[in-house]
Q: What sequence folds into this?
């Protein structure tokens, strides 16, 4: 009796002996090797491609002969002819083990393939979406053993894939019979894994082998913009991304004005709900169009959003979120049908998952940041700030994570700033003011040159400079301070005091002229005293929120700062610290996480275990309510000033060494603001 | 140390000792005594009324002193003043145990109270509906421990009622916050027990204690009529019943013509679906109006229906049910939201349960008959026949149950009969023909007198006799045979041969004149040769179905026959056997079960365990498909004749002793009919 051939799979290293003639796919399944297959080994889906290795594999103690696998067969030849197989590849369901062999499973043949995220520091996402495709052969009906078509589909899924118990809604049942017959009782189903305790749900069914792919949407539903990433649920690749304005803006710029709109206008919440749902439908159609896929192939959606957006999306009046004690209607994660949200553009049975909210002011967007950045797994104490109209702030390490939200207002997004605008071509995004001459130089979005470089105006055109975006205004205020044009209290000096004609009178205060494009028909771009005040309010709120978490944690410094959000990605950490937006840390300890909320949504879309994880994590986060905490107000007031720090920023000292300046004027309205509630 | 007081509950006999001062409700709960309470012992719902007994209870070995319970308290006094307490009654949550006591729980205070069904032979229904009311006090929101209102509702239900895990749809979540606040965080919820593995669902919520009741609908969705019983889910009482015509009749009289309509007209199935759903909404509105309740209090619906009605209700094209192999889209029981069936008249979150189908021709209505009549628990071999446009037939005892459906057509319901009409006032429902004079006498619905009794015409009026209903035509055909006016093959004789002027010529055959009301402006009511043929076809189909089951069971007689259905309740068993509709059994072994399918629906509405039971039972029933069984055709042809049996019917011999008669004519079209498929 000879020994059965030895099979070693890479990269897993799993190995075993199998009778000669065993298909590679069968061996992989028995060993628990992660080798994909939709058709269940019928040689039609081509998902189980493998690469056999030949020759000496001393690491594995195997020498592979040229005839270790069965010969290339007709199924493989036909597939290669029609679609093309990469050189060296075989179909795992066709190739049979004839001798000792080493078999590599390439990444694209792994079910739980890993998707590398762009941010270098971030973890990879293991593909394990809630919805997968399964090809099955269903028994034909038999009068003598009567049973429903759906029950026979369930039996086939159990027999061929080991799936116990399925369910389907009426719209699926109504198409089941014609599809089964069209496919001659061979069909592909999209099966959505049940939520806790529920059976799996058939989301769609196609005759024969469905090769059109399966898609999901990760949606970051912000107060101002809605961003969607269309993701291939088989590969994890982003097929298209798009963003649109949140149409609720016409009901109120910020969250509290939308809550007010709902309170003042009966049915106002329903208007806003209808508006946002329509926008999401439009957005879904756009990304599907861009990726050239049928939007009906979108079977999953994950939403992240703040609590007010959360309630308005769900059709719940957000009135309770506008007043203490800021009670959410529900805080836990939501799993529901897209139809319940009127998302008619998608597959009619598409499933929605919404991350849990943390508290009345700290939403699913913050939960998504926690899922993406994992403060609870950090060795050092990390402060994570997601800057938007509200700032979501997380502070934590392996021992404990705290969260709060701080109402920064829209100034950081360029709103309520005299020359402010969104980050778009023509917006000044970076600015430097020479401490000696007080002259500015700047860079606008859409042009790589600085304004004092040759050819800048040729590229941009004077009329092409349209305003200042969020990152530009932060740099402008910090640079004004560093150039001695602004005192610690945030007051700008006159031309006489500061010695520069760039300081121009405006009402009873002064403004700094950044750029005058009026001769060319463009705008005159200034930073006014009002702009300074708006930024001071915003940065004080952000800083106060961070301090409150530090108090709760009992620390007065953090080890690192992560700036999240589209805006966070463009902030200059140095200027942010000059301004006092964030606590002091060494500059190399400030990193950008990009759109961490959106990334969290993508993770939850691609990996169901991540949903369970964030539900658990959210339950363990300590929630801090800023609105009722007297110390928040204290920190807020204390953070209003812009002290000129020389330490710990040696980089700054290389740029400027200026005396403290102080101006004396009247007419300042001070740094107080009304708190909501 | 004294011994704690002894408490004995009747009728359960449960007993135990409790510390003096323990409320009766608490003692009942600890002992597992079935004592209702919605408010959880707060003295507001009055569901926990009990009757203490005083004096000597030798059976229980207890002597009850006058002060065995605490004194009547303010809560009880207020309740008595406002609503009135029956003499001797106490509120179980207020009365405290002070000494040995015997406490009776009256039926209306039992959660699982039993509802006695009208049919004397039938079992009682123990109330255990899927949806119940629960009063709870929810914690108010706390900013320092943020949690959603829904999560706090869930906690309250767990704390006060031990219910683990609840869910709700968006429409409930959107009303949750205002209702909680209106009720000052005291609310009543209607909670629907989850289907297997699912958590319970909040169907509705009311501020404070909801006293408006909770209702369910049991709907028997027939091809011809739709009947609804509005049932109080707390008491089990039927609050109102109503029936309307199935509007699908305009698309086809019988099932197969409706399937044909769907096959011939694209979208025809959707037209029929919309029509039946609209009719159900109307019917629900009617019964709610009759009972003077808000239809929004209807939170449950149970449907029983045949497979074609089942598919059309669900919005599934029934085309596969019109052709071999008669594949159902799904055969298992269905649990879904009423909204999915567009039943907008009901509570927006009302839950629907549809009994399982047995086979492609044997529907949920037959399953409901099995649930009501329980052939699987019968000691003797029972044949259960539910007569309608299709007959559902069950044969079984404790060892095994078989089922089939037989296409009798609508003749038994008075359709396709020349003078036929539905069972309504004015219809002849019983008829006797004197074997000597050949003269008829009859009774019409709405009048207790026979037509030959004095004052009959005064009561009915000649024009008030409008036609013959199903039971009337069966009796007429049997009586014609017994009176020698009809031969064994079903052929009627002429006036010359039979010697009565009541036999009048009609086309090339003859008709029997039952009643001529033309002088008074009424119809001329006859039984034509065509009517005889229609009844022969129907009775042959019914008999052949029963025989097929007897063959499959290997028997040639049954022990008893149960006639179910509204029609079955009015059939004369004697005439049915003369006709050969049902196998011969002693007359006292033929019983009527009334509307057994409707009763099955009511059982499933009132008791969730019954749903699980019928799902199990249906899986064990042997399905027999009549359409493909060659022996069905054999039995069908053999059953066409109407032999004049003198045995085992001595009763008949008392009425008539006639010679066999035989007529000779041409023009008979014979007893063959097209089979479906």
A:
């Amino acid at each position: 009796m000879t020994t059965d051939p030895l099979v070693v799979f890479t990269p897993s290293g799993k190995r075993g002996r199998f009778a000669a003639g065993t298909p590679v796919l069968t061996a992989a399944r028995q060993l628990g090797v992660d080798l994909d297959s939709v058709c269940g080994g019928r040689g039609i889906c081509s998902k189980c491609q493998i690469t056999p290795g030949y020759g000496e594999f001393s690491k594995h103690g195997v020498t592979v002969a040229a005839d270790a696998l069965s010969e290339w067969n007709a199924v493989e030849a036909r597939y290669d002819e029609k679609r093309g197989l990469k050189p060296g590849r075989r179909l795992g369901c066709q190739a049979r083990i004839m001798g000792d062999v080493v078999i590599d499973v390439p990444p694209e043949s792994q079910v739980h393939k890993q998707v590398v995220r762009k941010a270098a520091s971030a973890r990879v996402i293991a593909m394990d979406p809630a919805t997968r495709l399964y090809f099955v052969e269903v028994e034909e009906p038999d009068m003598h053993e009567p049973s429903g078509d759906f029950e026979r589909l369930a039996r086939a899924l159990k027999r061929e894939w080991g799936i116990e118990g399925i369910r389907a809604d009426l719209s699926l049942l109504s198409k089941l019979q014609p599809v089964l017959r069209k496919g001659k009782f061979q069909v592909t189903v999209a099966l959505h894994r049940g939520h806790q305790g529920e059976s799996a749900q058939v989301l769609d069914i196609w005759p024969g082998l469905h090769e059109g792919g399966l898609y999901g949407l990760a949606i970051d539903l912000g107060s101002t913009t809605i961003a969607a990433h269309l993701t291939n649920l088989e590969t994890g690749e982003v097929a298209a991304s798009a963003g649109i304005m949140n149409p609720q803006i016409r009901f109120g710029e910020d969250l509290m004005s939308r809550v007010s709109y709902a309170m003042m206008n009966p049915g106002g919440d329903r208007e806003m709900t209808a508006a946002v749902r329509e926008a999401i439908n439009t957005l879904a159609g756009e990304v599907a169009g861009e990726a050239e896929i049928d939007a009906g192939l979108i079977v999953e959606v994950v939403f992240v959003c703040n609590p007010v957006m959360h309630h308005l999306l769900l059709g719940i009046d957000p009135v309770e979120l506008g007043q203490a004690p800021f009670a959410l209607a529900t805080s836990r994660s939501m799993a529901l049908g897209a139809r319940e949200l009127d998302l008619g553009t998608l597959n009619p049975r598409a499933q929605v998952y919404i991350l849990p909210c943390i508290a009345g002011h700290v939403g699913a967007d913050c939960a998504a940041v926690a899922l993406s950045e994992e403060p609870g797994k950090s060795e050092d104490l990390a402060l994570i700030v997601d800057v938007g109209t509200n700032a979501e702030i997380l502070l934590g390490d392996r021992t404990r994570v705290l969260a709060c939200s701080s109402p920064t207002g829209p100034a950081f997004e360029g709103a309520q700033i005299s020359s402010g605008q969104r980050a778009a071509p023509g917006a000044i995004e970076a600015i430097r003011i020479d401490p000696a001459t007080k002259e500015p130089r700047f860079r606008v979005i859409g042009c790589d040159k600085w304004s004092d470089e040759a050819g800048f105006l040729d590229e941009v055109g004077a009329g092409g400079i349209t305003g200042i975006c969020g990152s530009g205004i932060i740099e402008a205020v910090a640079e004004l301070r560093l150039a001695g044009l602004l005192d610690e209290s945030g007051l700008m000096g006159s031309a006489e005091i500061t010695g520069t004609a760039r300081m121009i009178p405006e009402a009873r205060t002064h403004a700094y002229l950044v750029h005058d494009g009026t001769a060319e028909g463009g705008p005159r771009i200034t930073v006014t005293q009002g702009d300074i005040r708006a930024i001071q309010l915003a940065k004080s709120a952000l800083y106060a929120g961070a301090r409150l978490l530090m108090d709760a944690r009992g620390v007065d410094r953090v080890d690192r700062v992560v700036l999240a959000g589209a805006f966070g990605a463009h902030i200059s950490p140095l200027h942010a610290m000059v301004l006092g937006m964030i606590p002091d840390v060494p500059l190399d300890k400030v990193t950008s996480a990009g759109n961490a909320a959106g990334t969290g949504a993508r993770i939850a879309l691609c990996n169901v275990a991540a949903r369970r994880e964030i539900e658990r994590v959210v339950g363990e986060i300590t929630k801090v309510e800023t609105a009722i905490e007297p110390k928040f107000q204290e920190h807020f007031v204390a953070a209003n000033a812009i002290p000129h720090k020389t330490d710990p920023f040696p980089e700054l000292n290389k740029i400027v060494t200026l005396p403290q300046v102080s101006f004396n004027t009247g007419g300042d309205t001070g740094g107080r603001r009304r708190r909501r509630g």
Summary: Confidence is low (pLDDT under 50) at residues 117-122, 646-662, 664-677 of chain B. Residues 217-354 of chain B form a domain with the Nucleotidyltransferase; domain 5 fold (CATH 3.30.420.480).
